[in-house]
Amino acid sequence: MTTAGTPPAPGTGPLAGVRVVELAGIGPGPFAAMLLADLGADVVRVDRPGGAGLAVDPAYDLTNRNKRSVVVDLKAPDGPARVLDLAERADILVEGYRPGVAERLGIGPGDCHARNPRLVYGRMTGWGQDGPLAHRAGHDVAYIALTGALGMIGRPDEPPAVPANLLGDYAGGSLYLVVGVLAALHHARATGTGQVVDAAIVDGTAHLSTMIHALLAAGAWQDRRAANLLDGGCPYYGTYETADGRYMAVGALEEKFYAEFLRLLGLTGPAAAHRDVSRWEELRERVATAFKSRTRAEWTAVFADSDACVAPVLGLREAPAHPHLAARGTFTEHDGVTQPAPAPRFSATPTAVRTGPARPGADAAAVARDWGLPARPADGPGAPAADGR
User: Fold this and answer.
1) Chain centre distance of CA 381
2) Which one of 139, 322, 335, 370 is the catalytic residue?
3) In terms of C-beta density within 10 A (0-12 exposed, 13-18 middle, 19 or more buried), how is residue 268 classed?
4) What is the pLDDT of residues 271-314, one digit of tens each?
5) What integer pLDDT is reported at residue 377 of this predicted model?
6) In this predicted model, what pLDDT tens digit does every residue of 194-228 receive, in sequence order?
7) Peptide bond into 235 cis (omega under 30)
8) pLDDT (0 to 100) of residue 7
9) Residue 169 catalytic?
10) Which residues face 198 on adjacent strands?
């Protein structure tokens, strides 16, 4: 079993051999760096003295798994130079400061590219590097609100429903940053020239809604909540309460799946309502009444071996035990903590949770050794001496 401070196992994952510097922050930057680490990259997180501001015990901060950590005070006289030493040896750097902050600290793209022209410099922000709001504070809910995405989610007679921070921070932010830096890395390796990747949550979240905009332009989508096929407006694409106060999710879009859904639900007669929007409210009421007649477990058993596209709505603690997810190993346990396993999966270069969350500064000596950094006694216990021994 691996522990904090243990170097990640070499040669695991398709990004084995790729070096990444992560300038510590919260939210989408750490998650993006975790994904790169899960894929096998050697990610060194540059933590600041006192932590990053997220009140989570470092032992449970799973977005720092598979990484190593050094602590650098960027306001100290030698702080920027230490980051530039890392950047000189890295393939990718990820930062999530407001525009201009990295430049003022002396670790902006120009400073880093002067030391390493091949470096991919990934910038993660909510508003982007330019525009009227670029220098304003913000969080996920504001970013997705401005793109129109938040306004699509929820019941029409209630405020928009906040989808945790999954849609903005992680889908519109982290995943786009990862796609961007990997594309830029491919370019850098082909040309010898690095570049800056400007990943803005507003851009990524807007991009995620491309299909919805296509439907809107074609007149097949109404610009209001719960009035469309995929936003809860359709009675055979949504969620329903069961007799025990839990919920089932229904996604019986195609006619053959819809027919199977009605049959197993025990409804006869409303087959034509599949395409007749004027009958959707009637159908919704009948479906809701039917689901209220049994418990979630009972309905799960009814639909278990069907193509009706119906599934129980599980809680976070329930999900890992679901037979399908358990069989695939969708969740894993490391150091006694259950967590999502790395994704996606690779046939030739499998990934794994190699180490638990990196503790701030615990890996300074190992990183100095492995990356050939100038040794500093301040790197902590186990650091090499000033002469490198």
Assistant:
1) 33
2) 139
3) exposed
4) 788 889 999 999 999 999 999 999 999 999 999 999 999 999 99
5) 63
6) 999 999 999 999 999 999 999 999 999 999 999 99
7) no
8) 47
9) yes
10) 123
Q: Which long-range contacts (CB under 8 A, 24 or more apart) does 189-197 make?
A: 189/118, 192/117, 192/118, 193/117, 193/118, 194/113, 194/116, 194/117, 194/118, 194/119, 194/120, 194/121, 195/120, 195/121, 196/109, 196/121, 196/122, 196/123, 197/120, 197/121, 197/122, 197/123
Sign of the CA dihedral running 349, 351, 355, 358: positive
SS3 45: strand
Cα 81 from Cα 74, distance rounded (Å)? 9
Which candidate in 85, 169, 203, 379 is catalytic?
Answer: 169
Per-residue pLDDT, averaged over 49-74, amounts to: 88
CA distance 69 to 33: 12
Q: Is the Cβ–Cβ distance between 43 and 70 less than 8 Å?
A: no
Q: Which amino acid is at 86?
A: L
Q: Which two tokens stand for residue 343?
A: 């994704």
Verify whether residue 322 is a known catalytic residue.
no
Contact 169, 204 (CB under 8 A): no
Radius of gyration of the chain (CA): 25
Cα 383 to Cα 20, 211, 346, distances in angstroms: 21, 53, 36
Does the pLDDT of residue 356 top 50, yes or no?
Answer: yes
For the beta sheet containing 195-200, the strands, ordered from the edge strand earlier in sequence to the opposite edge, are 67-71, 42-47, 19-23, 92-95, 120-125, 195-200
How does residue 3 score in pLDDT terms, banded at 50, 70 and 90? very low
How would DSSP label each residue in 229-260? TTTT-STTEEEEE-TTS-EEEEE--SHHHHHH
Model confidence over 91-138: pLDDT tens digits?
999 999 999 999 999 999 999 999 999 999 999 999 999 999 999 999
The tokens describing 130, both together, are: 């330019």
